[in-house]
């Protein structure tokens, strides 16, 4: 496919370039097609408070250079800071290999880029599947630069090149192996390996470890998100610590610093900071690292509920926050929920109790007030037939249900002596609500392009809470509903999964479910009451049988103990080394991942054991689709 330079660089002609080359592309200037307007044209009190906070700022970190100058100012006011920074750059000019290794030979990065037609197709996949959820890139300003770069891939600026490779990586992450083969005539593994290597090299060329560029940091963030399925959570957590330190050095966490930038730059800094802390929180939980960046102690404002078309480089005044479902609604709602969570007693108790004095006072009414605010401020404007709105609706509602379940766990810890039947019933209802919301997300064709995001949030705590109830109250009136909800969620999550591979998570999951069924069945036998085998039990047993026929049943015996699931015996501590929950159904795996084999629970044999007292509830995969873990998006 050929593009003339004049064709590529003609202002406003990008859409025509894509269309003339048979690349499906959404027009850049059609920003309002999916927005549903509000009849109310006003700012909420919360918006006004946020706006005032951006103007006024809060206590700023003192600058030691100002102190050393002791009030003396001249035209060279920042000379010493700049001179020392420059001297450091000159003194240490060969440290880019620290994380990605040294290069054996020079790499011609232009050879790793896709052909122009494929490049624009990957860009469109990114715009469809990634950008609506993360909103860390600004389409109106970035698209023209990508078109220009595609005309001469040998001369792409290093930070833009790193960002382009990060975009390729994320686009491939969202596609199935079949889609990769059909679109690009290469395997997903080949494409992922190629673009991830290219991103590493481009980041090294950008001196990313010392960068002050938001664009470079965005590239690093996209790279880390793209490799998380193939990497140990602890490894990703360590790399994310680097990204977080870079972000903090750039001042993204400080609204006072953000507000000094242009309107567009300030907003993109906020979006990137919130995406970083939410992802860092999620990965920290999976890697059993309790303190996270999603905590009280910083004041970066929430992203504004505005579409990209309202943010321009020349914009002098911040646009009015919209009372409608803009294209940024998912990112805004996840940040709202994350802000609530980081100041919540349950979150602080399970992550870092020392942060309690720094937490903001939450609105009266707790989770009820949170639910009302989210519904009235955002969700009532959503159209359930719109894929992004649908994703926002059910992730937000699932997150609120998870908030309630999390708070119940804290209530149990702090008042187990008075924890009564009403508490038990309420907790189970929260768990059921969570699974029902997750099932709507996992089963809908509207979320197909967003499955990469959902794979991080398998709602195992909800399963465990329901199963605890079934074991301790086998004749409960909600038993049938509990089994059905778990079955529906499990089947929705496992759609498209193959039976020739399985992940170690399946072992404890099968043990928990089948062990609970054994207890329930025995209780009915002793009471001489009939009970039908739940469909979930049949489904799991069939999966075990299928894997056994495929030769995936390990031969080494497993040590067994009795696994108590009763609430009274649970010491709410769960070192949770399950890795990427998306791998549970062999759906989220990336190239290079080789699951560890170990024996699944087999009917008729001694059950595999998951000792609930060895599980760490503070690092639990709370699966809150937008909130910081432990309860994060």
TrEMBL record:
This protein's GO CC annotations: nucleus
Residue ranges, compositional bias (Basic and acidic residues): 26-35, 42-56
Main location: nucleus
UniProtKB keywords: Nucleus
Keyword check for Secreted: no
Keyword hit for Nucleus: yes
Ranges where the Xylanolytic transcriptional activator regulatory domain occurs: 236-309
GO MF term set: DNA binding; zinc ion binding
Biased composition (Polar residues): 1-10
InterPro entries: Sec_Metabolite_Reg (IPR050613), XnlR_reg_dom (IPR007219)
Residue numbers spanned by region Disordered: 1-56
Protein name, entry field: Xylanolytic transcriptional activator regulatory domain-containing protein
Lineage: Eukaryota, Fungi, Dikarya, Ascomycota, Pezizomycotina
């Amino acid at each position: 496919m050929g593009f003339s330079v004049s064709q590529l660089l003609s202002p406003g002609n990008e859409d025509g370039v894509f269309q003339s080359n048979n690349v499906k592309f959404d027009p850049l200037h059609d920003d309002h097609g999916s927005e549903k307007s509000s009849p109310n044209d006003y700012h909420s009190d919360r918006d006004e408070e946020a706006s005032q906070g951006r103007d006024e700022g809060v206590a700023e970190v003192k600058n030691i250079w100002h102190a050393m100058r002791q009030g003396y100012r001249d035209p060279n006011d920042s000379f010493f800071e700049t001179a020392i920074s420059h001297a450091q750059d000159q003194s240490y000019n060969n440290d880019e290999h620290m994380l990605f290794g040294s290069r054996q030979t020079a790499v011609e990065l232009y050879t790793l880029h896709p052909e122009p037609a494929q490049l624009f197709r990957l860009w469109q996949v990114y715009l469809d599947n990634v950008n609506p959820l993360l909103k860390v890139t600004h389409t109106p300003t970035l698209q023209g630069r990508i078109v220009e770069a595609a005309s001469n891939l040998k001369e792409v600026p290093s930070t833009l090149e790193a960002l382009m490779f990060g975009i390729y990586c994320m686009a491939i992450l969202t596609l199935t192996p079949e889609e990769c083969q059909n679109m690009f005539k290469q395997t997903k593994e080949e494409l992922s390996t190629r673009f991830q290597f290219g991103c590493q090299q481009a980041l090294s060329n950008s001196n990313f470890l010392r960068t002050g560029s938001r664009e470079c940091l965005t590239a690093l963030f996209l790279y880390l998100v793209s490799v998380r399925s193939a990497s140990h959570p602890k490894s990703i957590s360590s790399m994310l610590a680097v990204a977080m330190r870079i972000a903090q050095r750039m001042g993204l966490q400080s609204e006072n610093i953000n507000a000094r930038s242009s309107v567009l730059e300030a907003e993109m800094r906020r979006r990137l900071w919130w995406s970083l802390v939410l992802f860092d929180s999620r990965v920290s939980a999976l890697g059993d690292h309790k303190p996270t960046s999603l905590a009280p102690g910083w004041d970066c404002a929430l992203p504004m509920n505005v579409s990209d078309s309202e943010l321009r480089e020349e914009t002098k005044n911040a646009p009015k926050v919209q009372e409608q479902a803009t294209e940024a609604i998912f990112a805004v709602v996840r940040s709202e929920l994350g802000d609530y969570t980081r100041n919540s007693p349950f979150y602080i108790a399970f992550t870092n109790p020392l942060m309690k004095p720094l937490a903001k006072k939450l609105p009266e009414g707790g989770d009820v007030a949170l639910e009302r605010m989210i519904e009235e401020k955002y969700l009532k404007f959503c159209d359930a037939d719109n894929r992004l709105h649908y994703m926002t609706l059910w992730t937000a509602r699932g997150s609120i249900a998870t908030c309630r379940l999390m708070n119940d766990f804290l209530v149990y810890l702090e008042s187990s002596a008075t924890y009564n039947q009403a508490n038990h019933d309420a907790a189970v209802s929260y768990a059921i609500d969570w699974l029902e919301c997750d099932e709507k997300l996992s089963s809908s064709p509207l979320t197909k392009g967003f499955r990469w995001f959902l794979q991080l949030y398998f709602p195992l705590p909800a399963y465990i809470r329901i199963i605890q109830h079934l074991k301790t109250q086998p004749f409960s009136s909600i038993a049938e509903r509990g089994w059905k909800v778990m079955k529906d969620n499990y089947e929705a999550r496992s759609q498209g999964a193959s039976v020739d591979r399985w992940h170690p998570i399946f072992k404890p999951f099968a043990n928990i479910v089948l062990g609970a069924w054994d207890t329930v069945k025995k209780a009915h036998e002793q009471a001489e009451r009939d009970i039908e085998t739940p469909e979930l039990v049949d489904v799991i047993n069939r999966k075990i049988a299928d894997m056994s026929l495929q030769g995936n049943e390990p031969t080494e015996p497993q040590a067994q103990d009795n696994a108590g699931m009763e609430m009274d015996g649970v010491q709410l501590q769960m070192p949770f080394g399950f890795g990427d929950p998306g791998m549970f159904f062999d759906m989220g795996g990336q190239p290079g991942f080789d699951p560890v084999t170990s024996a699944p629970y087999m009917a008729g044999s001694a059950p595999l054991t998951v000792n609930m007292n060895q599980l760490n509830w503070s690092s639990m995969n709370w699966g809150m689709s937008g909130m910081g873990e432990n309860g994060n998006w």
